[in-house]
Amino acid sequence: MSKEQGCVLKAWEVTVRKTQQAKKRANNIFGTVSVASQTDDQATTTEENDDETSTNRSSIGELYHAERVLPNGDYYTGQWYDSFPHGHGKYLWTDGCMYIGEWYNEKTMGKGKFGWPSGATYEGEFKSGYMDGIGTYTGPSGYTYRGQWVMNLKHGHGIKSYANGDVYDGEWRRGLQEAQGKYRWRDESYYIGEWKNGMICGKGTFIWTDGCRYDGFWDDGFPSGNGTFKWDDGSFYVGHWSQDPEEMNGAYYPSGNEENLEWDPKDVFNNLSEYKTCSGERVPVLPSQKKLSVWNSSKRVEKPRRISVDGRVSVGLDRAFEKMNMWGSESGEGVADIDSTTRRDLDAEIMRLEAEGFIQSLKPIPVPMRLPRAGKKQGETISKGHRNYELMLNLQLGIRHAVGKQAAVVSLDLKHSAFDPKEKVWTRFPPEGTKYTPPHQSSEFKWKDYCPLVFRSLRKLFKVDPADYMLSICGNDALRELSSPGKSGSFFYLTNDDRYMIKTMKKSETKVLLRMLAAYYNHVRAFEDTLVIRFYGLHCVKLTGTIQKKVRFVIMGNLFCSEYSVHRRFDLKGSSLGRTTDKPESEINSNTILKDLDLNFIFRLQKAWYQEFIRQVDKDCEFLEQERIMDYSLLVGIHFREASVAGELIPSGARKPIGDFEDESAPRLSRADVDQLLSDPTRWASIRLGGNMPARAERTIRRSDCELVGEPTGEYYEVVMIFGIIDILQDYDISKKLEHAYKSIQYDPTSISAVDPRLYSRRFRDFIFKVITEDD
């Protein structure tokens, strides 16, 4: 090492030691036990007077006991680290809330007890500020819940004892009763069986205290479907149950020669209307919503970070020397001038010190991330004069006619003939109208409904109200056409409320959907949380006259119809060839669909949700593989929950000085907003697998352009995720086999999209499970 290098390193080491001593003195001042809050001016005076006399107190980086009255009036006593609670301690907020238990880096983590001013308490496990794990909540009205929690929600097995004496013992999901459970009313009558979204739904048994019982199927708390009602004397009634008297039918079987002709099945419904399950109580404020008042000196001013030519923030050697003003000063004096060779040697020496663990904070980190530029509302409104205006009118007329004349679905059990591709209905729409069609201003056309009973049943299965469906597509508001057609040549249209997307179809895609329709119907019926795209209707418009043009289209759910704005969109397949956006950075906004090689995050889900996620992805991929489908993708939308006023994303766990405030109009959803969502039982249902899911996004950096998954940086962001599997109508036909053979000659066969469905499914899952993992 040259003499000049040695001098520079020696000067750097001396300055680092002085910096540490200064921090130690500062911590001595702020680390003293205090019984009253201090103003910033008082803190400044104390620092100036006691610099030389506080050498035997706690130094920065050490864990010690402290008792503090914080600037906003909050009180804390317990273990303290740096400028926040860490270890075991007690925190009392000015509004009367209190937490006693374990802390980790200013977050409630581990076992503890949280109390509300109302008298409500939670005692159990915490994770990152949330009630998470095994715990007991006692409400102000006296009800208790003992069981499992995930992010403030009852999730898993638990027992809830209500204030009126009712008890539920069973499974919970996202704060509501789900799957198997037993509910006992205070008169000792009870139900045991299946639940769905907090309601009795599925197969189960209700037993009254007088010995009568009902065994069968339920929907929304009442018998629905096949079931048997038994009296204590052995007589019973078997039949199909429904709240609609016209659908109700069955037979009565007496125990002996007696006949109970006066009994009416409606009596069961009237009786059950008295047995209401208690609703959940709203928690006014959640533990994760409570802000901590962390001590910060108002004298601290952070210097702006220097940006290196490779786009990274320099927090390494340059930053250390900036602090001691070696490379330069405002006056331009005292510059230690070294050449590039010396600098390279010095960088190598610093890297060695880092590798040996001597220095841990000199690695460069990525540039702070910003919220992407907000895109305009997608699509061009189809108004009079638009080239597709007449097609839109035809489409709206056809759907209004098809949905309006259809009878309600009685049963979801469909005959095999309903799925026959030949099961279609043609309707003629002349301009003057007919007995069944209204007059209109468009040219004459024919309308075709494919498998109308199947899609009507699908809409009921997906809980789509027919009136709302027609209003969204056929209301006064026009459809919007997306600015450019997709890669397949299809055009896309959005309804004005963004709930539905309409896609024009090629004949080959129509054949694929009709071929797999029965399997699709059975799959979405068996797996309520399936991630595959939802289809609501398949139709065709045939223009009459000399053109004789046929336009086939499918109506689908819009995945990104959510109360959260989507900041980033990714289309992920697990292949690398051509899987990057072709837009320059200046043109990318929140509407831009990015691809595999543009992805710079790993998403981490809570354990319970991640287990559901991998189970469902496996089931969905098995279904698509059996149907010989490939080239599908996972469409992912990301909403960043916290950002500064300037639009800079705030990593999770980042602490801001006291008094730092953020503009309410900033384009973000704060953690408090999400917690408020979780605290309201009426809105819990909006969180589901693939929809509005809270997660953490860890930023990654790629070492090479062809690397699919980058290296984690340890920088996390709180996000809300929306995702689903789309483009499921491409089978492995002869064209795809030829594409695979041709591209395999030029490129790595594993990097291209067109591969055998079995290989595609395995590669897709391998990639998805790398970029969406469990948060451990």
Automatic annotation (TrEMBL):
Biased composition (Low complexity): 37-46
EC number: 2.7.1.68
Pfam families with a match to the protein in the record: MORN (PF02493), PIP5K (PF01504)
Catalytic activity reported: a 1,2-diacyl-sn-glycero-3-phospho-(1D-myo-inositol 4-phosphate) + ATP = a 1,2-diacyl-sn-glycero-3-phospho-(1D-myo-inositol-4,5-bisphosphate) + ADP + H(+)
Top EC class for this record: transferase
Span of domain PIPK: 387-772
Stretches for region Disordered: 37-60
Keywords on record: ATP-binding, Kinase, Nucleotide-binding, Repeat, Transferase
Name this protein carries in UniProt: Phosphatidylinositol 4-phosphate 5-kinase
